[in-house]
Amino acid sequence: MALGRRNEERQAEFWVATQQLPVSPGHVFYQKLNGLLAEAGFDEWVETLCEPYYSKRGRYSIPPGVYFRMLLVGYFEGIGSQRGIAWRCSDSLSIRKFLGIPSTEESPDHSSLTVIRERLPAAVHMAAFAWVLKLAGEKDLLDGKTIGVDSTPLEANAAMKSIVRRDTGENWQEYVTGLMRDSGTIGPEEKPTIEEIKRFDKARSGKKVSNDDWESPTDPDSRITKMKDGTTHLAYKAEHAVDLNTSLIIAAEIYHADQGDAQTLEDTVQMAQTILRECGSDVQVEDVAADKGYHAAATLAAIAENTPYRTYIPEPRLKAGQTRTWTDKPPEQRDATYANRRRTRGVRGKRLQRLRSERVERTFAHVCETGGARRTWLWGIDKVRKRYVIAAMAHNLSCLMRELFGMGTPRGLQKAAAFLCAIYLVLLAIGRILARLRSKTRNFWSAPITKHSMRTVPAAWRRADENRHFSTGC
Fold it and tell me: How many angstroms separate the Cα of 424 from the Cα of each of 74, 138, 419, 420, 431?
């Protein structure tokens, strides 16, 4: 066979038969997922849901099922940006088969995802999220009586260097330049260099960047907050209400990053109960577990007075010499705090705290870290909420796939193959060690007994050999 050479300027064929186009056998995970969605009638349901938001005339748009599947691909492949999702869908033949796009057509562009997201309201995205929970309920994989709540920051698509003053609209350099003029460091008409501005800003005291004074001109809904790694960024707050029995996300809410956990707890739990009702479930949320960041006497009293939920929220430790005083607070707050303390210190409270720290934190690891949702590439809290709720929907589908078929992500098969390979290597190594020990033992018993050999063998073997020779008369 002759050597084939790559031609950079090779002319493509003018006519190509459809039989010659590349066809992918498909990915087993995406095939199973398509089968699950087809069995439940997802495409017909979502097309009926989205029909009021489209015109009756004109050329046909991208089917809503393809739009939602592309967002699911973003979660399963760990891609956060729409450009990355569109590139991945156009590059992979197996994903094109999952989307139902033939080889003769192009996959949707990233701008198409933007247009469809702007067209469909947040209610449609929430309905798709509730549809997956309803499917989980039909498979007996949804409980909902005991939930855990926790939150995490999401980095916004805005930079701290671009923030401006809310009152005057000045950016940071203009603001520091004004301070330099007020302090007499420079003249009224003098313009300092960037190095001088940095030097003055570093030396001055009382520096504070507050959300009341500063905002981002590109994303006003984002807020200045501290991230998990200790850095300061413009961000949002994502909050999950997770079923502690099945690890399904019942509610995934997006709030402003400066809203405290105690302020949003009741809203998130009420949203979880509303979604359960929309799923057709008669389950009533009974127990709510959260970490000590959600503890507030006013919040506990409001939940105890207005809702049927029982809270299991540990109290933060008081400083040395500090005690709680109730003279300036209503008695309802005191009673709710003592009742929550009694429940939390019980056996059930400790068990729920262990489940919360295990399963709620795991949902953030799946959605934000491996799912690519730790940083958002959109502007506005409504757009971020639409995108994030579909990521939570993909997580619930992953839990369904893991329970029904034993694999939750496309990369799970690779991990399973690596795990089986590691087990094979361990067993092979153990077999070689046992064979070597068996060979040494066989050589020991068959070798002649000498004074030198009796000195080098272990004492237990030496005693056994002496007994053997004594019993045989050697």
Answer: 33, 39, 9, 6, 10
